[in-house]
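User: Reviewer 2 asked us to show a designed sequence for the structure in our supplementary figure. I'm pasting the structure tokens here. Could you produce the per-position amino acids so we can include them in the response letter?
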């Protein structure tokens, strides 16, 4: 839902990337849900099939698979092109002033306006 609202406001893709599929209202991309079974046990840990991470429990691995860890990075910084899976990551990047993007008045104003409207977006 939040991603839909941000994409609707960002028609020129200033902070969103053009993707073939976007996360739906539940935060899931249009792809099949993924979960692990006992077959993920490697003798010591439950291993993720997509990355080198390992977990002590099957529940931990399944939480990892449901997290945004393997989602597409749909947001990007318009100045340094760093990509983010979550809007909050982009907001933290801008607020940290690590690349100087927040020094641009237009970006600061746009981000302030967007984050100020979040409570209204969430109640729609």
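Assistant: Here is a per-position design you can include in the supplement:
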């Amino acid at each position: 839902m939040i991603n839909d609202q941000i994409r609707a406001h960002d028609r020129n893709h200033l902070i969103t990337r053009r993707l073939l599929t976007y996360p739906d209202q539940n935060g899931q991309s249009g792809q099949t849900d993924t979960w692990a079974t006992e077959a993920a046990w490697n003798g010591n840990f439950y291993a993720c099939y997509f990355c080198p991470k390992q977990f002590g429990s099957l529940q931990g691995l399944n939480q990892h698979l449901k997290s945004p860890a393997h989602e597409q990075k749909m947001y990007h910084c318009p100045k340094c092109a760093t990509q983010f899976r979550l809007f909050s990551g982009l907001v933290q990047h801008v607020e940290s002033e690590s690349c100087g993007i927040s020094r641009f008045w237009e970006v600061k104003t746009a981000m302030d306006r967007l984050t100020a409207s979040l409570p209204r977006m969430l109640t729609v």
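For the response letter, you might also mention the following. Residues 2 and 118 are 8 Å apart (CA to CA). Strands lie at 46-47, 54-55, 75-76, 83-84.
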